[in-house]
Design a protein that fits this description.
Elements lengths: L6 H6 L4 H16 L6 E7 L2 E7 L8 E6 L2 E6 L20 E6 L4 E9 L2 E8 L25 H4 L1
Antiparallel strand pairs: 1-2, 2-7, 3-4, 4-5, 6-7
């Protein structure tokens, strides 16, 4: 296991605390991060994204999608079955899970849908008007008579 010391980053930068914290979290979690359940992240438009998670065997009532502290948390817990079933082979995992996705600023969850064993979560990035680039018109300064020098006075 590698251990990265981000102390020099903290000493050399101002205002990048969130990025450094996110790096530390991702480095700490990726080492032991399980690959269950599998998921895709796709870009559907310039400012739109979709996370698709394979949740075969889970009903809508078993799934929870919530956003807290700029993190999307998807979790599932299968209700206990009342009848005992005897499996000859059990390849569909229905174990409980919790999957976290760190969201950037101004990214919000638009909706979620569950169909054909897939949970689709749609996200959009909404940059506030104050942060969008804007064009500044350059006004020409009016020429006053005081600024104009008479050619005869100069010669």
């Amino acid at each position: 296991m590698r251990n990265f010391d981000l102390t020099p980053l903290y000493r050399a930068t101002v205002g990048f605390d969130q990025i450094a914290d996110m790096l530390e979290r991702s480095l700490a979690h990726d080492v032991g991060q399980a690959s269950y359940p599998p998921y895709n992240i796709e870009k559907t438009a310039d400012d739109a994204y979709r996370i698709s998670i394979a949740v075969a065997g889970f009903a809508e009532a078993d799934l929870t999608v919530e956003v807290k502290d700029h993190a999307l948390v998807v979790s599932a817990r299968k209700a206990e079955e009342e009848t005992e079933r005897s499996f000859l082979h059990r390849g569909i995992a229905t174990r409980a899970f919790e999957r976290r996705f760190q969201l950037a600023q101004h990214v919000r969850v638009v909706g979620a849908s569950h169909a054909d064993g897939m949970l689709h979560i749609d996200l959009t990035r909404e940059v506030p008007e104050a942060l969008k680039p804007r064009r500044i018109e350059i006004a020409s300064a009016p020429v006053s008579e005081a600024d104009v020098v008479d050619a005869k006075a100069v010669n």
